[in-house]
Amino acid sequence: MNIRLVATIVVLLGVVCGPAGAAGPSGCDLGGTQIRSMPDPVSGRSYDVEITLPSDYQVNPGKRFAVLYYADGGHLAASATCLSKEPRRQEALRLVKRLHREGKLADEPILVGLSYAKGEGFAASRARDYTPVADKPGYGGAGAFQAYLAKTVIPAIESSYRTAPRRRLFWGHSYGGLLGARILLTQPGLFQSYILGSPSFWFADHAILAMEAGYARTNHDLKANVLIYVGGDEIRRYDPDRRGDTRDMVADVRTFETQLKSRGFPGLTIRSLVVPGKNHRSTIPPGFSWAITSVLGNQTVQPR
What we know:
- With 304 residues, this protein is of the alpha/beta class.
- The protein has eight helices and eleven strands.
- The strands form two sheets. A nine-stranded mixed beta sheet has the order 1-2-3-5-4-6-7-8-11, sandwiched between helices. Strands 9-10 form a two-stranded antiparallel sheet.
- A hairpin with a 6-residue loop joins strand 2 and strand 3 (46-52).
- The longest helix has 19 residues, at 142-160.
């Protein structure tokens, strides 16, 4: 996965900007987005977590809010000082704000961005933390990152802010979508809804499909709402830049969805969207709009 692609993902996945009222507990407040350091007590690694509150959080003190946790939140410039960190969140933020303004989102959620380990390059950090198996050195740490999320991040957020625990969402794109699928198949109750964007199901010879089969052998239900989007151009084709074929991520999404549906899990809702004419980067705005509106919306939004 090239660095330019990852940089594009983290720009588009930066949904936590804009007016958010007063900051919560102590941390670094960047114009509405608070940056809190949350070390992992098990691994010893330290991560920043980015929190942005809905625009009506302060004016509705009795209200509890859905929370959207999203991968690839750690796209701030590395520095020891808070003020030198520049948030890059405008694209997806505009989608959330626009959908809410147009009445397609019933509520704005609290937004929680999950960062990369401090002192590491983002490519190395996300490769370890977002992949489910160690098919090569430096990969396969998703289980440890999931435990950190479940035991450290989520309890800290829910003890500090007015959250609605039954309205907890996860959003990940590419490797982040693969992480979401791993959580879904190992600890499904951690989130009620999973938004998986162009997920890297191809990783380690489609290891996620074997994980799904293993889950199905020992479980009779999977209580979750799953929405998967992928660009229509994410098919197998020759890429001159790579001097080889691209992966067929559309086929992978269809295989994963079909395999899950075949289990007949009564508590599972799963839908997918192939966005025509979009690639791994450009599918994010229409794909995310469809998914977040499906979960928190007043009506179904169609991709543009």
